[in-house]
Amino acid sequence: MKKISVAAHLSKSEVFETVGDFLDELGFVVSSKDLNRPWGGFFVLDESQILKFREHFFNEVGLTESQLKQKLSPKFLLVAPGARLSWQYHHRRSELWKLIAGKSSISRSHSDEQGPVQEMTLGEVVSLDKGERHRLIGTDNWGVVAEIWMHADPENPSDENDIIRLQDDYSRK
Description:
This is Mannose-6-phosphate isomerase, cupin superfamily. By secondary structure, the chain is an alpha+beta fold. Helix content is about 15%, strand content about 40%.
């Protein structure tokens, strides 16, 4: 499988260009992107490509036919060196994360108290339960994390409004 490489010295726009080119080369269609997040940003892929996305980035994860027919919101999170997402959880989704390039850490807990920070392992799937508190953390390099949302209620799928922030470095609610 084709690999992507990012380096700490790259600017945000250079990292986004690198990841965008990588997705283009693999034939993925980007439905939206946001490079204006204070911690980095993300690419959302076209939902119709979930099988291809799973095959490339989550081939060790078994998804049922029913799950594959649901909205799974295939996405790439790009976290900047030294930045971190909010300490958060969700009522309507669990998540699957996989570090595919660079370096990142994660903190997680089943209570509001932030858990220990652990370095993510390149290529290893992290499964976050619905309601589990979590935070993606940039270390000394950019981190590129593939993500799938597993909606608790497919008739009422999760969205960005399903982020319950317990702590945020950027004063967002």
